[in-house]
Amino acid sequence: MSTGTGTGTGTAADPAPRPRTVVALAGVTKEYPGPVAALRGVDLTVEEGELLGIVGPSGSGKSTLLHIIGTLDRPTAGSVHIAGHDVAALSDRRLSALRAQHVGFVFQAFHLVPGVSARDNVAEGLLYSGLARSVRRRKAADALARVGLADRLDHKPHQLSGGQKQRVAIAR
User: Which terms are listed as keywords in the entry (predicted)?
Assistant: First the structure.
């Protein structure tokens, strides 16, 4: 017997856990100087475990939306909550920590630091976490192992294939 609301299939004795909201945008608008409004009144909720595709023609605001969700830019109006945190209320330092813990980007160009090992490229993603360098490097090695690159920890970007570079960026 199914009871309750939402998408769960729990019973009265064993209710399904409620999904956790990881991204919540309400009335988000982003205007640039001149007559350009990249976003107007965007409402969006993303629950933990959901997969979201953002599609649209060139100039429709996809990159702007991702920059706002990733806390790289702030909206002109509206509210943004990431992992329960009101982005507008956070200092730059707290925002950096939030990004390090809850936000990940894989850019087309991967943005790996040339001349730096795969392990240290990943460890740099934890720079604002407050963790000691040795702990960051250990966590980086663990992350690289999870993406199948345990044998490439000390390889520099120029020594990696395109797919391996992408996995380094994902691990970061």
Answer: ATP-binding, Nucleotide-binding
**H-type alpha helices, the chain:** 62-69, 92-102, 118-124, 133-146, 162-171
State how far the alpha carbon of 108 is from the alpha carbons of 17, 96, 123, 165, 169, in Å: 36, 22, 20, 11, 10
pTM (two decimals): 0.64
Q: HEC string of 107-127? A: CCCCCCCCCCCHHHHHHHCCH
Residue range 20-79, pLDDT digits in tens: 999 999 999 999 888 778 999 999 999 998 988 899 898 899 999 999 999 999 999 999
User: Under CATH, which architecture does the 21-90 domain have?
Assistant: 3-Layer(aba) Sandwich (3.40)
